[in-house]
Structure to design on (243 residues):
């Protein structure tokens, strides 16, 4: 049975991605920074008929938690086929580039940038055991410098000083990682889930978690001829067309 680890999977897009990968026959390690919330999410999925789900306490901003999660997963499987770095925070809005306290920058970058990097490092040995490892980093169109500089883009005026730059950094790291792994079976890609109806957007988003998770899942399931180092998003016109 193939295996997947999803960070921030106790709710929102991560939870729905867990459900979809379970539907595709994966054993899912469901990351949650709060152990109880992770257990509840896993119980919910089991009750819905998906027995192959294991909650894993995983705070991506906490090195000790990442190391413990790596040890816990490693006790159960020698191979990880899919890593979805989904956990993310906005840091709250408004977030003026000049006047927001540096502590907020650090908090957001710890979760959105250093978190995925450290989780990827921690699980790289298990991923290397897979014949077709896939890493999906959940990003945002707000991190695209091209879109941020396009006055016709519908989110052009969303100019937070912290969250968008954190996703820009994640994008740049992902492109570098994909390039480094270009001659290996790894596929390393980015997905913007769209503007999604979750707690993250105070449920103002105009698209569903189902569609968002389908985008993430499709990129996690890319075949050997699939792309790597690309950014996929709703506004591409097709889920698998990079921006
Ligand atoms: N919703 C959108 O419109 C939208 C658009 C573009 C990109 N995204 C990205 O999509 C991803 C998921 O967002 P969502 O909409 O599903 O948000 P959400 O419903 O707020 O869920 C976020 C998840 O991340 C977890 N999380 C936060 N900090 C964490 C940490 N330090 N360690 C581990 N988990 C942590 C949360 O855990 P708790 O429950 O413990 O807080 C929760 O499980 C994020 O990366 C976000 O930036 C979302």
């Amino acid at each position: 049975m193939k295996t997947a680890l999803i960070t921030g999977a106790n709710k929102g897009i991560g939870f729905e991605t867990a459900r979809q990968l379970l539907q595709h026959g994966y054993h899912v390690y469901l990351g949650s920074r709060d152990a109880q919330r992770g257990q509840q999410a896993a119980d919910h999925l089991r009750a819905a008929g998906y027995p192959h789900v294991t909650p894993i306490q995983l705070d991506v901003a906490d090195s000790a938690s990442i190391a413990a999660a790596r040890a816990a997963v490693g006790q159960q499987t020698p191979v990880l086929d899919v890593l979805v770095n989904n956990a993310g925070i906005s840091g709250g809005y408004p977030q003026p580039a000049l006047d927001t306290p540096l502590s907020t920058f650090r908090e957001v970058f710890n979760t959105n940038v250093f978190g995925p990097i450290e989780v990827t490092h921690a699980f790289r040995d298990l991923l290397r055991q897979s014949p077709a490892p896939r890493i999906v980093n959940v990003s945002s169109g707000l991190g695209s410098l091209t879109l941020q500089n396009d006055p016709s883009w519908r989110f052009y005026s969303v100019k937070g000083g912290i969250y968008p730059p954190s996703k820009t950094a994640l994008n740049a790291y992902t492109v570098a990682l994909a390039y480094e792994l270009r001659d290996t079976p790894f596929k390393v890609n980015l997905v913007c889930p769209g503007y999604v109806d979750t707690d993250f957007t105070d449920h103002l988003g105009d698209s569903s978690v189902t569609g968002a998770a389908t985008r993430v899942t499709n990129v996690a399931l890319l075949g050997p001829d699939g792309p790597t180092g690309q950014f996929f998003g709703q506004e591409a016109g097709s889920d698998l067309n990079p921006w």
About this structure: The pocket of NAP is lined by residues 7-8, 10-14, 33-34, 37, 58-61, 86-89, 111, 138, 140, 192-193, 195-196, 198-201, 205 (CB under 6 Å). The radius of gyration is 17 Å. The domain at 3-236 is CATH 3.40.50.720 (Rossmann fold).
